[in-house]
C-alpha cells in the first residue's frame, strides 16, 4: 500500500513537472561559431529561468532556406530559428512585444533591423527579430598578390572598373586563375547594380527590376565574364538560383579581388591565418553611387509555438546588451544593436587583418543607400535574389542574349510579386 | 527422438495459427479471406502511393504559394496551359515557361544518349564477362561496384576529377596538353553528365544482361558451331534475339531511371552552366522548393506531364514485349 502511494505521488510530481516544463527548439545555422556560442549563452538563460529549456539544433543554411519554410507552412517546425529571409518568413513570425518587459529598449537598439520583419500583415510596431549578425556586402583583396605584382591597390572609394583593371594586372603578373569574383546571388549583385544607378523600386515602392542602371551593370558583368575578368566558375558553375561563393578560391590565394560580405571575415581569419595578407575594401563605387547591401542573420520566434511567453523571454535575453556583446566578441560579427555599435565590440583574440576588416565593414554600413535598406526589407526580395543569377547566367553562357535574359528576369519578378 | 520433437514443434506452431485462421475464414467466408491478407499492403500502398498521386492532382489544379489545401484557390488547368504555352515547342525561347521546355529538351537528349549508350556498353561488357576470361569474378565485381555507391558520392568524386584544378586537367597539363573547363562549357558538361550517369548505373544492367545471357541454352550455340556458323552470325541470329526479352526489361527500367535522374547531376553541375544540364526533375524541384515564391502547383503540373510521358513510354515498351511474346 505504502509502495503504491509513493509510486502514485512520484508519478503525479513527474507529470506536474512535465506539464510545467517548456521545452523550446532553436533551429540554428552558423557562418562561423554562432550556434555553439548561443548554446553557451542559453545555458545561462536556462539557469536563470528554471522550467524553460532551449535545445539548439544546428542545421546547414540550406535547411533554413528550403526545409524550414515548408515545416512552418504546415504549422510544424522549431519554436525559434536563426534566419536571413525575413520577408519570406514574416507571416510565420511571432510578435514578442506582448511578452517582453522592455519593448522600448529593444526598439531603441534594433529599430532599423526590426523593420525588416514588419512586412505584409505583420504589426507595424511588432518585435519579430533580433539581428545577431549585421552584415554588409563589400570586397576583399589579396594584398600579398598586389605586393608581389607591384600593382598599386585601388584606394578606398575606387570604382569597380578601377578594381577590375588592377585585379587583371595582378592576375596576369602573378599567374593566379582569377582576377575578380562575385557571389552567385542577386543579393551580392544588388549593391554594384545600385552603384551603377539601378533604382529597384518606383516612387510607389513597387519593384522595377530592370532599368538603365541595372542594365548597365548587367552588361558590364557579362562583359567581365566574357573577357575573363570575373571567375566564370562561380556564376556559370551552377544552374537556376543556386547560391555559390568563391571563398575557397580566395582562401587558396587563387583570386585577387572577391566581392562578398562581412560574414566571411571570421572564416578568412581562421582559414587564411598568416598565409597571406588580405584587406577588406568595404563598399566599391559605380558611376552613380558607392553602396553595398545590408543584411544579417537574426533570431525569430514562430507563431505556432505552444510557449509564446517563453519564446519572448528568450528573445529578450538574446537582445540584451551584455549577451549580444559576449556573443559578438566570440563570433566576430558586426552588431545590429545601436548601443553596441556606439561602444564598439572587444573582439577576442583576432588578428590585425580581421580587426581591420571588421572596422572597414562596420564603417561602410551607414553609407549604404536607402534603396539598399528598402530592398533588404522588401518582402519579395528572395525572388529577386534567386531569379537574378538564374537569368544572368543564361546570358553569361550564351543561352540567351542579355536583352532576352533581362526581359525574362522582369517577367519572373512580375510573376513572383503577383503571387 | 529429435524427429519426434521437431514434429511436435511443427504441430504446435500449426495449431497456433490454424485456429485464428479458421475463425477468420468463418467470419469473412472463403472467397473474401484473400482481401483480409491483402488489406495491410493495400492500406500502405493507398496511403503512400495513391493518396500522394491524388494530392498531386489537387495541387496541380490549385494556385498560390501555400501548402495547405484550404489556402489554395482552384485555378483549373491554368498551370498546364502555362507550361504548354509555346509558339514552337522546338524553340524554348518562344515558350512562356522557357526553362521547362529547356528541361524537356535536355531530358529528351539525356534519355536518348544515356539509355542508348548504356545499353550498348552494358551489352558489350556482359558479352565479355560471359566468356571464360581471366579474373572474371573480379571484373564482374568491379563493374558492379559503382552501383553500390551513393549518387552524391559518385558526383563528388567526378567533380573532383573534372573541376578546373581537378585530376583530369592536372593529367592533361602534365602530358603537355591544354586544359578544359569541363563543367563550365555547356556541351562538355552535358557529355560528362551522361558519362557519369552511365558509369554509375551500368553495372546494374550488366548484371541483368549477364543473367539473360546465361539463360540461353548452350546447345543452341553448339548446334550453330557444328554447322560452322561464324561467331558474329551467332551473335546476331541467336544471342540478340534470345536476349531481347531481357533487353526490353533493361530498356524499360533504364528509360524510367534516366527520366528520373536528379541527384548525381544536381551535385555535379547544379543544372548548369545556365540550364544546359537541367533535367525535368530538377526543374520541378527548383520551381517547387528552391526558388521564391514556391510554385507548388506548377511543379505538380510539370510532374504530372512527366508522369504522362513516362506512362506512354512504358505502355509502348510493354506492348512491344507482349507482341514479341506473341511472336515467339
Automatic annotation (TrEMBL), chain A:
**GO CC terms, sorted:** periplasmic space
Signal peptide per UniProt = 1-21
Per the annotation, which location comes first and is thus the protein's main one? periplasm
Its domain of life?
Answer: Bacteria
Gene3D superfamilies per UniProt: Periplasmic binding protein-like II
Query: What family does this belong to?
Result: Belongs to the bacterial solute-binding protein 1 family.
* Keyword annotations of the record: Signal, Transport
Q: What is this protein called?
A: Arabinose-binding protein
Which SUPFAM superfamilies does the entry mention?
A: Periplasmic binding protein-like II (SSF53850)
The reply to whether Glycoprotein figures as a keyword in the UniProt entry is no
The subcellular location is: Periplasm
UniProtKB/TrEMBL annotation, chain B:
Cellular component (GO) terms are:
plasma membrane
Cite a single Pfam family from the UniProt record: BPD_transp_1
Which sequence ranges are marked TM in the entry?
A: 33-59, 109-129, 141-161, 189-213, 234-259, 265-285, 297-320
GO biological process assignments: transmembrane transport
Q: Which UniProt keywords apply?
A: Cell membrane, Membrane, Transmembrane, Transmembrane helix, Transport
Instruction: Give residue ranges for domain ABC transmembrane type-1.
Output: 104-317
CDD domains for this protein: TM_PBP2 (cd06261)
**Classification via Gene3D superfamilies:** MetI-like
Q: Does the keyword Transmembrane helix apply?
A: yes
Where would you say this protein principally sits, based on its record?
membrane
Q: Which PANTHER family does the UniProt entry name for this protein?
A: ABC TRANSPORTER PERMEASE PROTEIN, INNER MEMBRANE ABC TRANSPORTER PERMEASE PROTEIN YCJO
Similarity section: Belongs to the binding-protein-dependent transport system permease family.
- Name assigned to this protein: Lactose transport system permease protein LacF
Amino acid at each position: 500500500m505504502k509502495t503504491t502511494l509513493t509510486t502514485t505521488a512520484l508519478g503525479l510530481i513527474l507529470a506536474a513537472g512535465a506539464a510545467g516544463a517548456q521545452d523550446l527548439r532553436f533551429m540554428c545555422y552558423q557562418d562561423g561559431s554562432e550556434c555553439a556560442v548561443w548554446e553557451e549563452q542559453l545555458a545561462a538563460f536556462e539557469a536563470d529561468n528554471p522550467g524553460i529549456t532551449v535545445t539548439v539544433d544546428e542545421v546547414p543554411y540550406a535547411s533554413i532556406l528550403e526545409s524550414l519554410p515548408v515545416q512552418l507552412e504546415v504549422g510544424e517546425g522549431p519554436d525559434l530559428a536563426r534566419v536571413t529571409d525575413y520577408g519570406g518568413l514574416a507571416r510565420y513570425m511571432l510578435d514578442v512585444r506582448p511578452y517582453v518587459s522592455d519593448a522600448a529598449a529593444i526598439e531603441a537598439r534594433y529599430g532599423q533591423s526590426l523593420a525588416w520583419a514588419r512586412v505584409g500583415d505583420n504589426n507595424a510596431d511588432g518585435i519579430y527579430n533580433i539581428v545577431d549578425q549585421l552584415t554588409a556586402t563589400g570586397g576583399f583583396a589579396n594584398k600579398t598578390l598586389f605586393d608581389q605584382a607591384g600593382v598599386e591597390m585601388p584606394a578606398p572609394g575606387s570604382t569597380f572598373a578601377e578594381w577590375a583593371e588592377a585585379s587583371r594586372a595582378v592576375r596576369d603578373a602573378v599567374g593566379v586563375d582569377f582576377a575578380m569574383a562575385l557571389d552567385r546571388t542577386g543579393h551580392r549583385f544588388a549593391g554594384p547594380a545600385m552603384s551603377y544607378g539601378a533604382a529597384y523600386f518606383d516612387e510607389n515602392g513597387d519593384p522595377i527590376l530592370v532599368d538603365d542602371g541595372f542594365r548597365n551593370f548587367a552588361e558590364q558583368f557579362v562583359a567581365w565574364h566574357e573577357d575573363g575578368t570575373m571567375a566564370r566558375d562561380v556564376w556559370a558553375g551552377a544552374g537556376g538560383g543556386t547560391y555559390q561563393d568563391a571563398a575557397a578560391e580566395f582562401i587558396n590565394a587563387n583570386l585577387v579581388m572577391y566581392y562578398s560580405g562581412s560574414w566571411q571575415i571570421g572564416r578568412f581569419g581562421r582559414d587564411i591565418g598568416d598565409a597571406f595578407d588580405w584587406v577588406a575594401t568595404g563598399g566599391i563605387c559605380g558611376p552613380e553611387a558607392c553602396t553595398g547591401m545590408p543584411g544579417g542573420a537574426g533570431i525569430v520566434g514562430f507563431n505556432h509555438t505552444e510557449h509564446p511567453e517563453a519564446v519572448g523571454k528568450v528573445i529578450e535575453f538574446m537582445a540584451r546588451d551584455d549577451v549580444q556583446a559576449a556573443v559578438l566578441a566570440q563570433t566576430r560579427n558586426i552588431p545590429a544593436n545601436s548601443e553596441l555599435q556606439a561602444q564598439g565590440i572587444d573582439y577576442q583574440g583576432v588578428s590585425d587583418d580581421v580587426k581591420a576588416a571588421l572596422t572597414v565593414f562596420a564603417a561602410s554600413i551607414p553609407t549604404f543607400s536607402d534603396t539598399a535598406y528598402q530592398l533588404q526589407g522588401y518582402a519579395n526580395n528572395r525572388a529577386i535574389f534567386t531569379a537574378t543569377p538564374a537569368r544572368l547566367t543564361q546570358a553569361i553562357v550564351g543561352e540567351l542574349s542579355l536583352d532576352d535574359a533581362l526581359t525574362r528576369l522582369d517577367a519572373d519578378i512580375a510573376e513572383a510579386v503577383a503571387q | 527422438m529429435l524427429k519426434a520433437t521437431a514434429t511436435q514443434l511443427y504441430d504446435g506452431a500449426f495449431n497456433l495459427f490454424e485456429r485464428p485462421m479458421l475463425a477468420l475464414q468463418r467470419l469473412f467466408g472463403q472467397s473474401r479471406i484473400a482481401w483480409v491478407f491483402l488489406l495491410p499492403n493495400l492500406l500502405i500502398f493507398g496511403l503512400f502511393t495513391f493518396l500522394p498521386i491524388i494530392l498531386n492532382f489537387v495541387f496541380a489544379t490549385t494556385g498560390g504559394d501555400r501548402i495547405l489545401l484550404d489556402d489554395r484557390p482552384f485555378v483549373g488547368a491554368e498551370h498546364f496551359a502555362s507550361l504548354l504555352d509555346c509558339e514552337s515547342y522546338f524553340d524554348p525561347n518562344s515558350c512562356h515557361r522557357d526553362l521547362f521546355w529547356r528541361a524537356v529538351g535536355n531530358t529528351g537528349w539525356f534519355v536518348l544518349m544515356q539509355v542508348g549508350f548504356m545499353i550498348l556498353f552494358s551489352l558489350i561488357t556482359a558479352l565479355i564477362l560471359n566468356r571464360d576470361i581471366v579474373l572474371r569474378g573480379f571484373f564482374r565485381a568491379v563493374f558492379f561496384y559503382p552501383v553500390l555507391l551513393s549518387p552524391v558520392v559518385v558526383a563528388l568524386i567526378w567533380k573532383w576529377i573534372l573541376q578546373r584544378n581537378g585530376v583530369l586537367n592536372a593529367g592533361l597539363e602534365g602530358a603537355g596538353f591544354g586544359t578544359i573547363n569541363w563543367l563550365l562549357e555547356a556541351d562538355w558538361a552535358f557529355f560528362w553528365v551522361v558519362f557519369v550517369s552511365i558509369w554509375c548505373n551500368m553495372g546494374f544492367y550488366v548484371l541483368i544482361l549477364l543473367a539473360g545471357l546465361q539463360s540461353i541454352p548452350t546447345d543452341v550455340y553448339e548446334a550453330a558451331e557444328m554447322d560452322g556458323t561464324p561467331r558474329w552470325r551467332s551473335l546476331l541470329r541467336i544471342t540478340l534475339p534470345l536476349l531481347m526479352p531481357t533487353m526490353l526489361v533493361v530498356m524499360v527500367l533504364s528509360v524510367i531511371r534516366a527520366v528520373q535522374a536528379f541527384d548525381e547531376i544536381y551535385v555535379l553541375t547544379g543544372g548548369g552552366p545556365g540550364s544546359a544540364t537541367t533535367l525535368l526533375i530538377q526543374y520541378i524541384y527548383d520551381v517547387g522548393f528552391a526558388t521564391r515564391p514556391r510554385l507548388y502547383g506548377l511543379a505538380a503540373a510539370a510532374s504530372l506531364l512527366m508522369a504522362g510521358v513516362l506512362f506512354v513510354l512504358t505502355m509502348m515498351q510493354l506492348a512491344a514485349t507482349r507482341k514479341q511474346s506473341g511472336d515467339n
